[in-house]
Amino acid sequence: MLGAAVSTVAPMIPLRDSIRSHSFPIVTKALILANLVAFLWELSLGPQLAQAFLQYAIIPARYTHPAEAAEVFGAFAHPGAAVLPFFSSMFLHGGWMHLLGNMWTLWIFGDNVEDRLGKARYLAFYLGSGLAAGLVHVVTNPHSGVPTIGASGAVAGVMGAYFRFFPGARIEAVIPPFFLGPIFVLPAVVFLGWWFLLQFFNGAFSLMSAGEQFGGIAWWAHVGGFLFGLVVCLFARRARRTPPRFIEI
């Protein structure tokens, strides 16, 4: 969703984790490539980008107030067009920092979750996380006419899965703008738990504020994606029985 997942950690940025996957993370890399290609496509649109966002971004009011929204944004051409934004929006981004923040977070946490779930289940899980995040965003911002884009909801689902599968992993992180140090090493349960609490409380403040969103970030989409990932993975069977490989950090 609008606002990079890693930027909302505020103020810590993960550098690496202590677990190495046993298999090549082809799905994670393919997702990163797909997001990059989609962003390059955005850049090629020029003045037509705004119209593309109206077609491919999530606009909550189009689902909760369809008649009124149709006068402003136009009606969906067919029922399938109403479903498309819940998937297309998670591959669109509002700028390089938005893209890089989300993809870096996916790179840090995605390979291990992919290794644990298996390729096909991981891809379905990623898309399901993004869908859940989009639905939560619509429910919590029913009157919003702001196009919402970004992979943050899906990436939040990956973070929720990592929280479930690897709570004892170590996350090496820095506080911007001091990217050369000092470096902090935190348990994943602390790092990701703190991230989730920030999303939750900022989301609560957004509901109490007069504006449609708080800080231009879809906080509840992050919360929804994270909880989806956490709950689904409570019941997910291990795809690989090989124990995780830890490295010293």
Write a structural description.
This protein is mostly helical and 249 residues long. It has one domain: Rhomboid-like fold, CATH 1.20.1540. Helices cover 58% and strands 8% of the residues. The chain contains eleven helices and five strands. The strands form two sheets. A three-stranded antiparallel β-sheet has the order 1-3-4. A hairpin with an 8-residue loop joins strand 3 (170-174) and strand 4 (183-187). The longest helix is centred in the middle third of the chain and has 22 residues, at 96-117. The radius of gyration is 18 Å and the shape is globular. The chain starts with 12 loop residues before the first strand and ends with a strand.
Keywords:
single chain, 249 residues, Rhomboid-like fold, mainly alpha, 5 strands, disordered N terminus, two-stranded antiparallel ribbon, 3-stranded antiparallel beta sheet, globular
Order of helices and strands: EEHHHHHHHHHEEHHE
The CATH homologous superfamily is called Rhomboid-like
* Parts with pLDDT < 50 across at least 5 consecutive residues: 2-10
Biggest β-sheet strands, sense, barrel: 3 strands, antiparallel
Total individual domains: 1
CATH architecture: Up-down Bundle
Rough outline? globular
Short recap of the structure:
With 249 residues, this protein is mostly helical. It contains eleven helices and five strands.
Outline the secondary-structure elements.
Layout: E1 13-17, E2 19-20, H1 26-45, H2 49-56, H3 61-64, H4 66-73, H5 79-83, H6 85-88, H7 96-117, H8 119-140, H9 152-165, E3 170-174, E4 183-187, H10 188-208, H11 219-234, E5 245-246
Antiparallel strand pairs: 1-3, 2-5, 3-4
Helix pairs in contact: 1-7, 7-8, 7-9, 8-9, 8-11, 9-10, 9-11, 10-11
